[in-house]
Amino acid sequence: MPKSQPLIELREVTKSYDSPEGRTTPLKEVSAVIPPESVIALMGPSGTGKSTLFRLLNRLEDPDHGSITYKGKPLSEWDPILLRREVHYVFQSAVLFPKTVADNLNYPLKLQGKSMSEEEMARLLERVGLSKSYLTRSIEKLSGGEKQRVHLARSLSLNPHVLLLDEPTASLDPESTERIEQEMRCYREKGHTVLWITHQPEQARRIADQVWHLESGHLRQEEMKR
Ligand SMILES: Nc1ncnc2c1ncn2[C@@H]1O[C@H](COP(=O)(O)OP(=O)(O)OP(=O)(O)O)[C@@H](O)[C@H]1O
C-alpha cells in the first residue's frame, strides 16, 4: 500500500476496565497513525496500557469508544482470524508445547495444511540467532531466552504484515538482542511494520522510526531522525 496512507489509524480510542479497586482507563481518546513500513517503539511505565493497545490492535478486545482501522477498514469489519494472520501478536511469554523445536516451528503451517523443509526451518532459526542443531532440541530443555527466540521464529514463519512484539529481547544478552534488532530492521525493509514494547530508551532509539510514550492514558509521539 502507498507509504502516504496510514496502515493503522486510531481515532479517539478509549478503553477502561472496572475492578473492585475502581475504574482504570489505560487509553483516553488516543489518536495516532501507524505508517506502513515503520518500526514503532512503545514505551511507558508498567501498567500504563501497552498490552491493552496490542489487544485492541489484535481484536482480542474492542475499544469502549473511538475506532481503529487497518488498511482503511474498521477492525470491527475484519474477520478476526484473517486480521490475526496479518497483525500478529507475539506474546511476552512464549506459548510453545513440550515437543521439539522443529515440531513447534512447523505447527502453524501444519494447521494450514502446509509444511516446512528442514532447510527452511534452519533459515528461520538463523534469523533469530539460533543454529540448526536446535531443531531436534526439546522445548522443555531450552532457556527462557531461547524459547523466546523460537517463539519469534515461529511467528516469522507466518510472514505477518504487522508484528506486535512484547519485549522480545527481555531475556536476551546484548549479542542476541542485536541479532533480533537487525532482523526487525530487515523485516521493515521488506515492507512490514513492527510495534515493539520496550522499557529501554536506548533500544527505542536504535530500532524505531517513532517512539510512542504512553502515560496516564495519553500518547506522546516522538519522531526519530534517520
Ligand atoms: N481485564 C482487565 N481487568 C481489569 N483491569 C485490567 C484488565 N486488563 C488490564 N487491566 C489494567 O489496565 C492497566 C493497563 O494494563 P496493561 O496490561 O495494558 O499494562 P502494560 O503497560 O502492558 O503493563 P506492563 O508493562 O506491566 O506489561 C493496568 O492497570 C491493568 O491492571
UniProtKB/TrEMBL annotation:
Residues 1-24 are annotated as: Disordered. SMART domains: AAA (SM00382). It comes from the Bacteria. One of its GO terms (cellular component) is membrane. PROSITE patterns: ABC_TRANSPORTER_2 (PS50893). GO terms for molecular function: ATP binding; ATP hydrolysis activity; phosphate transmembrane transporter activity. Keywords: ATP-binding, Nucleotide-binding. InterPro entries: AAA+_ATPase, ABC_transporter-like_ATP-bd, P-loop_NTPase, PstB-like. This is Phosphate ABC transporter ATP-binding protein. The keyword ATP-binding applies. It comes from Thermoactinomyces daqus. Residues 8-224 form the ABC transporter domain. The keyword Lipoprotein does not apply. Residues 9-21 have a biased composition (Basic and acidic residues). One of its GO terms (biological process) is phosphate ion transmembrane transport.
